[in-house]
Amino acid sequence: MEINEEDYFRRYKEGETFVYDLTAEGHSKAMVIDSDFKMVSRHELTFLEVDKEQQ
After folding, report:
1. Per-residue pLDDT for 55 more than 60?
2. CB-based contacts of 8, cutoff 8 Å, min separation 6
3. What is the pLDDT of residue 47?
4. With contact defined as beta carbons under 8 Å apart, do 38 and 11 qualify?
5. What are phi and psi of 30, to 5 degrees?
6. What is the mean pLDDT of residues 11-16?
7. What pLDDT was estimated at residue 54?
8. What is the pLDDT of residue 39?
9. Cβ–Cβ < 8 Å for 32, 18
10. How far, rounded to the nearest angstrom, does the alpha carbon of residue 42 sit from its chain's CA centroid?
11. Diameter of the chain by CA atoms?
12. Which residues of 16-25 are buried (b: 16+ CB within 10 A; e: fewer)?
């Protein structure tokens, strides 16, 4: 995983849940239509099983 353009590694435990928010903001222009936008999404990852050999 990469956070702020830096590699980020973490070992998760079986059943552990990781929740994070993602925000995308910007401006687009199609022909003569200008549009500002903002999208916010919430993600939840649950680790159901851990590969003991590769962690």
Report:
1. no
2. 1, 2
3. 77
4. no
5. -120, 110
6. 75
7. 64
8. 87
9. no
10. 8
11. 56
12. eeeeeeeeee
Tokens representing 51 are 């590969």
38-47: which pairs have CB atoms within 8 A and are 24 or more residues apart?
43/19, 44/17, 44/18, 44/19, 45/17, 45/18, 45/19, 46/15, 46/16, 46/17, 46/18, 47/12, 47/13, 47/14, 47/15, 47/16, 47/17, 47/18
Q: Write down the pTM of the prediction.
A: 0.39
Per-residue pLDDT band for 6 (boundaries 50, 70, 90) equals low
Return the residue matching tokens 């998760």: 12
User: Six-digit token pair at 47?
Assistant: 């680790």
